[in-house]
Amino acid sequence: MSRINIVLFRPEIPQNTGNISRTAAVTGAALHIIRPTGFEISDRTLKRAGLDYWDKLDVFYYDSFEEFMSMNPDGEKYYFTSHTSTSYTDISYPEEVYLIFGQETRGLPSDITEPNRNRTVRIPMRPTLRCLNLSNAVAIAVYEVLRQHSFKDLI
Asked: Which of 49, 44, 43, 42 is nearest to 14 (CA)?
């Protein structure tokens, strides 16, 4: 089965994860969350955040990056970072792909990006600014993959 997989490495801000879960739900992407998170994920906190889409998406949890990798050995993986020169639009994404994003305040650690240097990509932005909001970056990446595949299965 072809699928876009959104991977969040230790997300810190619940509103970003909420927005990303909505993007996953409306596009059919799976959401993978690598703990620890900077917030509690429970029915009560989800309802308070207005995340009425949570039951309409596939969410997977992992206690470490190593566990995520061992549970998902197949499928091409791309690591989003500002510390590379390859633009996210330079890639021809397969239908089965993992888009991996780091923490809002720190990004992905170098022990993850360095061994995967040939799979790191960036979203271009002005050089004087640090980064985009995480939920915006995820949406940009997901819709690029969808665009490349002619928005298959979407209306």
From this structure: 49
